[in-house]
Structure formats: structure tokens, C-alpha cells
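task queued by scheduler; priority normal; single chain, no ligands, no partner chains; default sampling; output format set to C-alpha cells
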Amino acid sequence: MEAPESVIRPPSSNNGAKGSRRQLYVIGGIASFMFMLFVILPQQYAWMTNEMEVHQPVNHNLTHHHEIIETVPVTIVCQLSGEMGNNLGKLGRCMSLKWWLESGAFYNSTNKLGYSARVALRHQQHNKWVRGAQDLQRCFPNTNQFDFSEANNNEFADIWKMQHQLLGGDERVEANSPFHEINSIDEKEIVSGLQSFVSEASKHHAMVYNAASKRNVSLPFLFSAQFQNLPLEDRFHEEIRQFFRFNESSCCKVMADPDENVFHYRNFKKEMPKRWNSYGFTKLIHSKQLICLDTKGR
């Protein structure tokens, strides 16, 4: 009796080719999975995390006085100037004044009043304010809440005159205003200005409607025209960091604008002690120049 044929047969050349293709498909699939796992997904996660951080609500972490029974809405008119850097400094000061008023530090024990402050912006007359506002809103999303032209209208000029008729002083817009101590660099003077303001606000407070901007302005109001200073920055450092959260995905760019210059500051003598002299930096060091640009402007 003959032995039965084995059911296992050697693969034909055609089957070998198919097996090789299947193996390539498997390897390709594994490689694609690994690429997604270690390259694409981390980038997507980083982008999502950045977006979440940029748009998350600001927590000022301030303690309100527990005996406040009424909160009075007040307005801080913030005079901007220059472009993004200057606007950051001036808006930072106005936001610090807002947080200070809302902290309960100027609680009125007689009337048990607290304060809810709103910042109203007034841009400069030079047309570069437009790009300054655009850059600020693109790079710091929390600034999108503001109307940069809110106080640039005749109605605000009338409200300014109303305040000066009530409290005295120069009626020209942007002239020396009541409570001007808030524009000082001295913390004690800033406190004095805020105390004078809340005292007046407790005696006669009104809300005036600005039909042009469709917003109410308190009477009296504060007018801030100076840059941020260290006492305010130190007091509200964490609040400033949260509010001016930087949006890297939409703000960073490779090329500067046509009217901008980028300078790279280097201490060549310290960084390259053996070679700095041979590179031609001697004259720069002796003349105490800090900037070195090559012929390509780098």
C-alpha cells in the first residue's frame, strides 16, 4: 500500500512573490503607525495644548472683601500709543489698576462698596495704531475682547468735559486729568490717586452712555496714559502672565516686516575667547558697540 501524499507542498514562485508583497505591506503599515505615534500625534497634541492654554479663561486669584454689599462699576480709560510693545506696557498698567480696584484693597467701610472695573481703550491718532492693535490681538488672544476705538469719538470728548465740569481741571481730552496720581511711578502716589477716585465714586457715581461705542462709561472715570511700572508688575505678576498669554502658533513669524530690523546681540569676546579677535570684532569691542551685523543683515 502506497503512503498518502503529504498535504504540504513547496510554495510556487508565484506564492513567494505574493508573500513578499504581504510582508512589505505589513512592514509599511508598522512604519506608518510608528510615524503617527512618535511624530504626527505629538505635534497635534502640542498644538491642541497650546490652543487650550491660549484661550483658557483668566483667573485673577484676587480676594474680595467679605463685607462688600454693593459692587460699583467703574471705568478705566486707557490711552495707548506706539505699536505692540508700547500697547502691552500701557494695557498692562490699566489691567493692574483694574485688578487692584477689584481686590477689595479700597473697600469703603462707610458704604460697604466694592468695585468692578472695566478697561476702555483709546488709540493714538497716528495710523500705526492699526497694526499695533492687529499684532496685539493676534499674539495675545485675551486682548480680542477690546474695542481699540471705544474712546475715539466726540461722545467720549463730551463725557471728558462732563467729568471736568464736575471735578474741575482742563477740559481738553488727554490734558492733566483728575486722579492723575495713578500715572505716577511711585506706588504711594498711585494709591493716593485710587483712594481719591473711590472717594469721589462713593459720593456721586453715574453711568453715561456713549452712543458711538455703545458702552457705558462711569462718571467719574480713571484716565491712564503711562506704561507699566515695577510696583504694579510685582503686585500682579501672576495675573499679568495669565492675561497676556502668548499665542505662538499665530504670532511667531520667520520674516520681519519691511519697516522692522532684527538685531542679534552677542558677547563675542566671552563666547569665543580664542577667535573673536581674528573675526574682526576688535574695533567693535574697542568702540563699545553692542551690535554686529554681517553684509546680509543677520
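post-processing summary
- The longest helix spans residues 13-55.
- The longest strand covers residues 70-79.
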